[in-house]
């Protein structure tokens, strides 16, 4: 009986070690350089999406040809997907700041929510990449 209790403890410790390993693998790598690179990538993509969104609005205001408007819209849509993917990586790696929900904010910003866009821009500002993004709106 004593032997089985020792085995049960060993199995319990092994299971706990597996749980800890799984949890740690889902967290940020802890590499500050990699974290900064992911943030820079996100902010670059956010700025590109903002530029593309602005080009679509400008194109519509200047009554550009429908082909030009469609091309700009396609570019903005592609840039929107890219920034959402980048925000997903930030969230998965635990690189959100101050209780932010960068993935949700980015999805909502791409959907037209200027408040969410403002929060996404603030994330870049606080990450030190304020020059890569414009103001929200």
TrEMBL record:
Signal peptide (residue range): 1-35
Name this polypeptide is given: Lipoprotein
Keywords of this entry: Signal
Keyword flag Signal: yes
